[in-house]
Amino acid sequence: MKILKSLKDKKLGVYLRKESPAENIITGYGRLQWLKYELEKYKGDKKFFIDRSNEDTNLNSLIKAIKSKEIEAVIIWTLDDIDLDLINSLWVTCFMNEVPLISFYKGEIKTKDIINTYTEQFLITR
Predict the structure, then answer these.
(1) Across 2-6, 24-28, 29-33, 46-50, which has the greatest mean pLDDT?
(2) Which of 43, 89, 100, 101 gives 20 to 30 Å between its CA and that of 35?
(3) How far apart are the C-alpha atoms of 8 and 17, rounded to whole Å?
(4) Which domains does the chain have, with CATH numbers?
(5) Each residue of 91-112: b (16+ CB within 10 Å) or e?
(6) What pLDDT, on a 0 to 100 scale, did the predictor assign at position 13?
(7) pTM of the full structure
(8) Backbone CA torsion sign across 47, 111, 77, 55
(9) What is the per-residue pLDDT for 103?
């Protein structure tokens, strides 16, 4: 991940939510292993926040860690891992604390990405 070079050893919060209850993120070849592999050379601290499908307990813990300055950059797999009602909370918390929000899948997440994702998900739920 080229963007990791720009983070200069910041404390990373890595968030991932299982896609299904049966997903095994500990063994085998999956998203978590891929993230861990990409982060092996990163010299800064890393803290993993992993939720089960349809849960957001660890995402809320990540948001609290950002507010308390324990996390200086956030890597997620994709915005699709985050429920509609929490996208805004995560984004505002990152923005207000000047914490980069990075999608492993797409790179740094900009305001327009949040608006597009939020709008798409809102239209799907209507």
Answers:
(1) 46-50
(2) 89
(3) 26
(4) 3-125 (3.40.50.1390)
(5) bebbeeeebbbbbbeeeebeee
(6) 95
(7) 0.81
(8) positive
(9) 86
